[in-house]
Amino acid sequence: MTGPDQVGGATDDDAAELIAQLKELAGADPADVRQVVAEVLAALDRAAGGALREHLPETIRVDAGLDTAAPARP
Predict the structure, then answer these.
(1) CA 34, CA 36: separation in Å to the nearest integer?
(2) Using CA of residue 16, residue 45, residue 51, residue 5, what is the dihedral sign?
(3) Burial class (CB within 10 angstroms; exposed 0-12, middle 13-18, buried 19+) of 59
């Protein structure tokens, strides 16, 4: 498990592996990937005390449930 002091030490290989995993999942069902990403962003926002949401585009905030003032997307 990665500790807080190791988060900034992610390598390009780690990023490439994550991208490959998301692409593989997207091939199966893009809606599932969108849901997973929204859940991850919501968890990161909670961990950051709500500081992440102000840096995300509105559509992503809505998908992640971080923008409660905006109407739900159809």
Answers:
(1) 6
(2) negative
(3) exposed
What DSSP state is assigned to residue 73? Answer: P
The percentage of the chain sitting over the pLDDT mark of 90, rounded to a whole number, equals: 5
- Write the single-letter amino acid at 42: A
Tallying the residues shown for the chain, one arrives at 74
* Chain center to CA of 35: 9
Res 48 pLDDT > 80: yes
At 49, is the pLDDT very low, low, confident or very high (cuts 50, 70, 90)?
very high
Strand ranges, E, within the chain = none
Residue the block writes with tokens 């992610």: 10
